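Q: What would this chain look like folded?
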Amino acid sequence: MEYILFLDKEKGEVRKVKVTEFGEEAKQSTIEKHPEALSIPAVGAIVPLTTEYPINTGSVDLLAF
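A: My prediction, written as structure tokens:
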């Protein structure tokens, strides 16, 4: 079973959520709200630009720099 771990900085707690219980839209909004979860210190911060960016075949869920 795969899990996603989240650190709630305000509460100082780590939450463990089963991947199957964590929908794709929830992943998108979590990354948008907390891009530091994917940031790489040696490279720099990830900055969300927009969501649902339209392309020819549909849309990109989250566009970031």
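The chain has one helix and four strands.
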